[in-house]
Amino acid sequence: MTGRAPKRSEVRLLVPALVFVALVVAVVGSLGTPLITSVATTFHVSLDTAQWTLTAALLSGAVATPVLGRLGAGPHRRATILATLAIVVAGGALTVLPLPFVWLLVGRAAQGVGLGLTALMMGVARDHLPEERSAATIALISVVSVIGAGVGYPLTALLAEIGGVRAAYGFGLFVTAVAFLTAWRSIPTAPEGRSGHVNVAGALVLAGGLFLILFLAGQRTLWSRHLSTAIILAVAAVLLLCVWAASELRSKAPLVGLRAVRHPAVAGANIAMFVGGSGMYLLLTLITRYAQTPHSAGYGFGLTTFVAGLVLVPFSVLGFVAGKLTPRVRTLIDAPLLLAGSAAVVGSGFVMFAAARSNLAELLVAMGLLGFGVGSFSAAMPGVILAVTPESETSSAMSFNYVVRSVGYSLGSATGGLILAAGTDTSRLFPDDHAYTTTALVGIAAMTVTAMTAIALARHRPQEINPIAVTADVPSRRRSSR
End of a domain among 252, 274, 296? Predict the structure, then answer.
């Protein structure tokens, strides 16, 4: 498609195309989760080593997201999207070919780059769809980027049980190839008059800081056995991020507009995303891990990987339902209050898990509450940020939010692992049951902080975005809404 405004028929195709691409990159990015055990068995590596098939994707996604967000804000957005999907397809090929384990990690890292496309899909929707439809589409994109893990988990687990780990990764290769063709056919070029310059030095410094943070979040043994090394690396990460922030404030073409991030609405939304994301991912990992714990531990249900994947079905279904309902509710309730309500729903899931988990039905209810809360939270979050963000900066602003989410998810996973490890006796393989209760209480505290942050946002309504910035984008909006 060219730079002209899309026709009505093209707009109808654009919405499902954007949602499909966002769903695919989310599913492929989470492929490592249900396949860790299969990878360890197939490649004869330890579970900790196999865990890197997930960690590598998360790391590359977090590093690529702000860079893609800046490129997506410029004139070469379509080319950026297609090139990124081509990288994901190439990574998928590496995961399928009969190559050594190191090439599987390279392929997974290449697939993880696609996680940075979600914000670009939002930028396309905001530029080329009428205002009401773009808001609903952006909310849906945000939701599917979260529930994608629940969609892909049971399917890939089943494929791994039937045809092995290569078959599961083959599914990822197939859907990303379809996503590439879909994007090539449907994604229009960005409006003219934008700068796509990338601060390469700043990108490298940010990549180093994010890599260290996410690496430390996923290395529980490093904190327990080599505390001094972990502290040194943590200090190095903070210093790198401080250097990056200083260079961004001086740069004429920053990866992230930090001055805009300091806006109370954006800063508050990112704080809520960080703390809330930690809690949400914490409950997801708690439920799936508890469900797979064998009866010999004195609790748990000993579910297979595939059946445990089915436990995520309520998460995906109710998350999607919440995502569809939120834009309608948004006309009656401010987005910050929706964030607070969503955090309360996730908090009730934690309460359910802490108080009642003796049968599988109770776990399904807790997972459903989590899905509904996450779906609503994800759908409401863009409304808070984009209310004070010029259209031309949509991709960049949402990219920063997704980096914050990635770090929050990693922190939630690491926090759960640390607490459960502390509750594991040296003579036992699995933690005591009360360790799960303790972890759930931590999650309740996290969601309480999230809700309070969102309420504070609601009490201080954000100012409108810069009228000059808005006016600059009005012609493109008028053209696209005809």
Answer: 252
Token digits of residue 53: 């098939």
Instruction: Give the structural domain span for 272.
Output: 8-198+253-480
**Nearest residue to 343 via CA among 381, 316, 386, 315:** 381
- Can you tell me the distance from the alpha carbon of 140 to that of 375, in angstroms, rounded to the nearest whole number? 9
Query: Across the 482 residues of the chain, what is the mean pLDDT of every consecutive 10-residue run?
Result: 51 85 88 76 79 80 81 81 96 94 94 89 86 83 80 81 88 94 89 65 82 76 80 92 84 70 82 92 87 88 83 89 87 89 96 94 95 92 83 74 82 80 77 92 96 87 44 38 40
What pTM was estimated for this model as a whole? 0.78
Q: Quick one: 107 and 190 in the same domain?
A: yes
Q: What is the DSSP letter of 330?
A: T
Distance CA(305)–CA(288), nearest Å, equals 9
Report angle CA 253, 257, 259 to the nearest 5 degrees.
125
**458 Cβ contact partners less than 8 Å away, ≥ 6 residues apart:** 334, 336, 337, 340
- 228 and 143: one domain? no
Q: What is the CATH number of the domain that holds 293?
A: 1.20.1250.20
Nearest CA among 336, 400, 407, 395 for reference residue 75: 395
Neighbouring C-beta atoms of residue 428, cutoff 10 Å: 11
